[in-house]
Specification:
The complex is a heterodimer of chains A (371) and B (108). With 371 residues, chain A is mainly β. Chain A contains no helices and 30 strands. Chain A has one domain: 7 Propeller (Methylamine Dehydrogenase, Chain H). In chain A, the strands form eight sheets. In chain A, strands 3-2-1-30 form a four-stranded antiparallel sheet, with no helix packed on it. Chain A has a four-stranded antiparallel sheet with strand order 4-5-6-7, with no helix packed on it. Chain A has a four-stranded antiparallel sheet with strand order 10-11-12-13, with no helix packed on it. Classes of the chains: A mainly beta (371), B alpha+beta (108).
């Protein structure tokens, strides 16, 4: 019987949650890397037993771990992320130039076809690539050097490249998102890049329609429609149907269009999920009610999903990488909270139940659908 | 530091913090043979050569700059701010005292 493996990164370690296809009874394994921040933990679609984890902390810096047995055992791989050439400067919070300095890996994106190829999005914002299973890392510096890099500024969480979306049609084409710079696309495997932010509007920057400077929080894409991208921005939920060249607001009837994650149903490319958060300073759900919102129309018309979720006195956040979908029938949806709960809906969001309630603050959730 | 450089090779005992022991897969102290003169830099280099997984965890792999929340102690002295070519105290070189890598006291 098919099953799922949910990979959870938290403020104090990693956890691996497994279940069969019913997604009712769960085995909880962890903490791995106890005491360390695990910003992201994910699996290779090409070789599902191969997992990668970003393990970091204020004391001892960055470690990348790899498992080749589905998370049972782990071994450190390469942790040297050296910017290409003289890295130069970007903008600091006060507008002064600040040297590019590596802080941590926010996101790991394995290739869908090559188990040795994996991308890493890092802070200070840059994209690295490993072609040897994480042993060594090289910067794809065309992104940082394409022209606007010196003008990039950090968001409140740091200046991080947190989202990498690969195009299922073409391994040379991908989108990345940087806070607070925006979305960038390459069509030549990372050699050259262009900002793709037309249509974004951010009141918090001097020119609300600027080409770069937008605090994009997350992107999602359905593999059957590679040119359609969904975006949760600092404020605004957006959609592009031309590969990111132009964006339109699809916030519609959401109670607030601030939030962090966005994801797409595994089998319905127009079914989209977000978790509205009150505001940029109040990082909790409106009215203390934890509600996932689902649109079955590709945006604009949204319905709250509440069955099984706390509807009073809930003041947690759901971070950008902390939502995932499985590809079983019905498309299971998962998300983790800063309060340490990981919720599952085996029926595309209609009903929810907690897998675990008391983990450290959840930073990321990924799910693997296993044969 | 007042100790003069020791010109012979040395066997240095190193005590690592728990997180780094776990990462390196070691129990207890690490014993390192270091060519003379044994300095702060040479013991860190020998430690990283013995356990490559520790590269980047104590100091920046490119600049050699100590990570902010890592401290180096020996013989009740804080060596953290000493330059890399600083000789280690004689008691450490003789193996009478360990060289301590310490995670700074900080919350989180």
């Amino acid at each position: 019987m098919s099953g799922v493996r949910v990979l959870v990164g938290t403020r104090k370690g990693a956890f691996v949650l497994t279940s069969d296809g019913t997604r009712k009874d769960w085995k909880v394994d962890g903490p791995h890397f106890a005491g360390w921040e695990v910003y992201h933990l994910t699996g290779s679609p090409a070789e599902p037993e191969r997992l990668f984890a970003s393990q970091s902390g204020g004391w001892y810096g960055q470690v990348v771990q790899r498992s080749d047995d589905g998370g049972t055992t782990w071994a450190p791989v390469g942790n040297t992320f050296t910017y290409d050439g003289v890295p130069g400067t970007h903008q600091w919070y006060d507008g002064t130039p600040h040297p590019w300095e590596f802080a941590r890996v926010w996101h790991l994106e394995p290739s869908p076809t090559d188990p040795d190829l994996v991308y890493a999005g890092v802070e200070d914002a840059a994209l690295f690539r490993s072609t040897d299973g994480g042993t060594s890392w090289d910067e794809l510096s065309g992104l940082r050097k394409h022209g606007s890099g010196p003008a990039w500024q950090p968001g409140a969480g740091g200046m991080c490249l947190h989202t990498i979306v690969l195009d299922p049609r073409d391994p040379a084409r991908m989108h990345v998102a940087i806070s607070a710079a925006g979305v960038f696309r390459t069509d030549d495997a990372g050699a050259t890049w262009q900002p793709t932010n037309h249509g974004l509007r951010s009141e918090g920057i001097p020119d609300p329609d600027a080409e770069v400077g937008h605090c994009v929080h997350n992107l999602a894409r359905h593999p059957s429609r590679p040119d359609t991208l969904f975006m949760q921005k600092h404020w605004d939920v957006m959609r592009s149907d031309d590969g990111g060249d132009n964006w339109a607001d699809i916030g519609g009837n959401l109670p607030t269009d601030f939030g962090f994650p966005i994801d797409v149903h595994a089998h319905e490319p127009d079914t989209v999920y977000v978790v509205p958060i009150t505001s940029d300073s109040e990082h909790f759900p409106p009215d203390g009610r934890l509600r996932v919102y689902r649109s079955r129309t590709g945006g604009n018309e949204w319905e709250p999903l509440t069955d099984g979720l706390p509807q009073a006195n809930c003041y947690v956040n759901v971070l950008r990488d902390a939502m995932a979908v499985d590809s079983l029938d019905g498309s299971g949806i998962y998300f983790g909270t800063t309060g340490g709960q990981v919720y599952v809906s085996p029926d595309a969001g209609d009903s929810w139940s907690p897998i675990v309630r008391d983990l450290p603050a959840v930073l990321s959730v990924e799910v693997q659908t296993l044969p | 530091m007042t100790d003069a450089p020791v010109t012979r090779g040395a066997t240095i005992r190193v005590k690592l913090p728990g997180h780094l022991r776990k990462l390196a897969g070691v129990d207890g102290e690490v014993t390192l043979d270091v060519t003379a003169p044994a300095t702060l830099g040479s013991v860190l280099r020998a430690l990283e050569e013995r356990h490559p997984v520790l590269r980047g965890t104590m100091r920046d792999p490119m600049t050699g700059r100590r990570r902010a929340f890592v401290r180096f102690f020996a013989c009740e002295q804080d060596l953290s701010h000493e330059p890399p070519d600083s000789p280690l105290p004689d008691a450490v070189v003789r193996g009478a005292e360990p060289f301590l890598v310490v995670g700074a006291m900080a919350g989180g």
